[in-house]
Amino acid sequence: MDRATFACSTAFFRDFGNSSPGALPGGHVDFIDKADSFTYSDFFRDYLIPNHPCIFSAKFTEDWGSRKNWVTWDGKPNFEHLLQKFGEAVVPVANCDVKEYNSNPKEQLPFKEYVEYWREYIRNGYRSSRGCLYLKDWHLSRAFPEQDVYTTPVYFSSDWLNEYWDAMAVDDFRFVYMGPKGSWTPFHADVFRSYSWSANVCGRKKWLLYPAGQEEFLKDRHGNLPFDVTSPDLRDKRIYPRYSQSQPPLEILQEAGEIVFIPSGWHHQVYNLEDTISINHNWVNGCNVAVMWCFLQDELAAVQREISQWKDPIDDWHLQCQLIMKSCTGIDYKEFYNFLKVIAENRISILEKGLDEESSSQNNSKAAISTLGMLHAVFDLKRTVKVLSSLSANEDFRKLDLTSLSPSPEALLQHLESAIDTALL
């Protein structure tokens, strides 16, 4: 996107406060047809900030290598090509026919074995004694970085999660899903209550979406969310006493090539209506980092309630709560501080060194955000300051040993505020 075009949109980067996820008036989901008439600023204003879903047409993915090479002439998965490229990989596979707690059990399988199963499953009329197996959460981009699979659309390029975990070189939140007709994902909200985008390389999906907050009406009398929101059990008031107060879900039928944007904190359930391959990212940025921080506080509070009876006997009880939270969510308060620090330092680097130098960087995530302009870097810093200020004042954070954090939270905040003041001069 042209930098000047984005820089002109200063009104979009006013102080939005702590905008919270909201319901979509009228249950309508916008369809974005043409890339040349839809800018990042449009997406920022109309979908990121108000936290509304939308669908991008197949025109946005038509140049992807996966759309050209992973699909046969009649729109089916090109198993021969996939085996040639990835046959020796080992992939995570879930069994959609088995419930384990509130998800499906997973196993690791050779990719060629999974494709053999999939072909046999189709030949048998979509039945198998092994159940309905769904390849999920495959970090294909990390395992095969040289492959021409896709290019992240500019609308999703302000991606703090992958920027941070790329810098740590330990993980990422970029996934490939592959599954036969009938495979599905149970009711859930995405990691850290992040945004997500999901593009169908081939096949069709049905999405059932509930705006953030609606999930409270779907909990059973013990406070647990349903595994399947289409189950008749939800109509039993003895089990789900508040179900009648919930809104009907938004339903999206996603065609081949289309991209669905899922807002932060929206719970959803997804079905593959055909043999389907999709590419999914989870991401957080300045628009929803406050939602992530609220989620972490809620998670810690839940852990503290669960082990409250052990508070007095355990000297390092607060540290144990952090360890349990990290085992459940993948992050604790100290790593969240480091997450904010890395993002903030990258933005300061952009402001101090300028766009051209950063755009030529080998760090793709930093290069992506630098293309959005100096104004976006300032916006990110302002949002980081708000959340970092809240974290620094948080009682549970202050009870931890913070001497290992460098710089200290106070020093980092001062640095960020100074950088913002300098940039706005």
From TrEMBL:
The record's Pfam families line, in alphabetical order, gives: Cupin_8
Name any Gene Ontology BP term. Answer: positive regulation of translational termination
Give the Gene3D superfamilies listed for this entry.
Cupin (2.60.120.650)
Q: Which cofactor does it need?
A: Fe(2+)
Entry-linked SMART domains: JmjC
- Coiled-coil intervals, chain numbering: none
Reactions catalysed according to its record: L-lysyl-[protein] + 2-oxoglutarate + O2 = 4-hydroxy-L-lysyl-[protein] + succinate + CO2
Q: Which keywords does this chain's UniProt record carry? A: Iron, Metal-binding, Oxidoreductase
Q: Which InterPro entries match?
A: Cupin_8, JmjC_dom, JMJD6_ArgDemeth/LysHydrox
Is the keyword Oxidoreductase assigned to this protein? yes
Domain JmjC, which positions? Answer: 141-300
Keyword DNA damage tagged: no
Q: What is this protein called?
A: 2-oxoglutarate and iron-dependent oxygenase JMJD4
GO annotations of cellular component type: cytoplasm; nucleus
Q: Fetch the PROSITE patterns from UniProt.
A: JMJC
Q: Name one GO molecular function term.
A: catalytic activity, acting on a protein
Q: State the organism of origin.
A: Prunella fulvescens
Q: Which family does it belong to?
A: Belongs to the JMJD6 family.
